[in-house]
């Protein structure tokens, strides 16, 4: 069963760029595999399909690491852009 994403972007055209950023911070080419790469790095047993046995802490570690790294990269890119001007 596919997971339904309920997050809505304010700018839907930004989806492709965000997916590329997600893949970049996870060190993969496929944004769909990003969470699995992060989970493997931090030792969380995330797998395709049902993951009901994961604790909230484990799930939060994966999402937090991925989201936190994306924010850090966006801040770095913004600072770089400001320095160019």
UniProtKB/TrEMBL annotation:
Belongs to the alpha/beta-type SASP family. InterPro entries: SASP_alpha/beta-type, SASP_alpha/beta-type_CS, SASP_DNA-binding, SASP_sf_alpha/beta. Keywords: DNA-binding. It comes from Ureibacillus acetophenoni. One of its GO terms (biological process) is DNA topological change. It comes from the Bacteria. This is Small acid-soluble spore protein alpha/beta type. Gene3D superfamilies: Small, acid-soluble spore protein, alpha/beta type-like. SASP are bound to spore DNA. They are double-stranded DNA-binding proteins that cause DNA to change to an a-like conformation. They protect the DNA backbone from chemical and enzymatic cleavage and are thus involved in dormant spore's high resistance to UV light. Pfam families: SASP. GO terms for molecular function: double-stranded DNA binding.
